[in-house]
Amino acid sequence: MGGSSSSSAPPRRPLLTTAWRKIPWGNKQEPLQDIKNFQPQHEDIEAIRVLLHGPVGAGKSSFINSVNNVLQGRMTHEALASSTTSDQSFTKYQTYKVKKEGRGNFYPLVFNDITGMEEGPGVRTDDIKLALKGHVKDGYKFNPSSPLSDGDHGYISSPTISDKVHVLVCIYSANASEMRSSVLQKMREIREAASDLRIPQLAILTHIDAVCGEIETNIKNVYRSKYLKRKMTDFSSRLGIPMNCILPVKNYSHEIQLNPDVDALILSALRLMIDFGDDYADTL
């Protein structure tokens, strides 16, 4: 399940007179510079680790790529993430870094993507808990019939603070059909596991331009769309994530140039991820 694609234009929908959330449109240099200058508060933290989860097609890979585009200041040719895997029966724990200016430099921020979490038996909740605690090595393929345990090749026996997840982010498509109960249950279990560890949580709502013609025409209408606000409210109640922790974005897909208004939404989401993750990491 994921965002549906259609060549037809999205429907026109009514707008609120004023936006219900403020975004600093047209001023991306200041938030971009803040992120470029960011260093974790905890001296032993190499990078803030963000764990992305959500249905196939929700836009996890596209979000990682879009963040890379914004931070690089250009459309990047090489995709950071792939939506395909050679073995669909396994769910892979993949880590992605974002390059910084200068040879060999990376932002102190990494993304972990649990691909295909809802297909077949899917990844076990116990394995997700191990990942949250930092016990899972990069590239490990989760086996739904055999949980990861100490002594296995993909197990980190003594995780560092940097191995641990510092913020959990659910990615979901605004254009998706109704969420299957099995997927919703899995996402709730992951949320509960993170809550037990006090890990902060956010949600990213993608494909917002595909559900509202006014947003497709002008991305600045995102917080004036009655339909999108209702979608966010429904998502909040179903998954239990507060509205102020749900951030709508438009991922880059067919564009060949950056759009400062698209960047503003991505930077807003990224800034909150970094702040939440850094505050949590500083308590470890």
Your description of this structure?
With 284 residues, the chain is α/β, with parallel strands linked by helices. It has one domain: 3-Layer(aba) Sandwich (Rossmann fold). It is 31% helix and 15% strand. It contains seven helices and seven strands. It has a seven-stranded mixed beta sheet. Helix 3 runs parallel beside helix 4. Mean pLDDT is 87; it is low at 1-6 and 81-89.
Instruction: Say what the CATH topology is.
Output: Rossmann fold
What CATH first level would be assigned?
Alpha Beta
Determine the CATH superfamily.
Answer: P-loop containing nucleotide triphosphate hydrolases
Share of helix among residues? 25-40%
Tell me, briefly, the overall form.
globular
Could you give the order of the helices and strands? HEHEEHEEHEHHEH
Strand order of the largest sheet: 4-2-3-1-5-6-7
Q: What is the gyration radius calculated from CA atoms?
A: 18 Å
Decide which structural class fits the backbone.
alpha/beta
Would you identify the CATH architecture? 3-Layer(aba) Sandwich
Strand content: 5-15%
Unreliable segments of 5+ consecutive residues: 1-6, 81-89
Overall structural domain count: 1
Mean pLDDT: 87
End-to-end span in angstroms? 36 Å
Largest sheet: 7 strands, mixed
Q: Care to count the β-strands?
A: 7
Tally of separate helices: 7
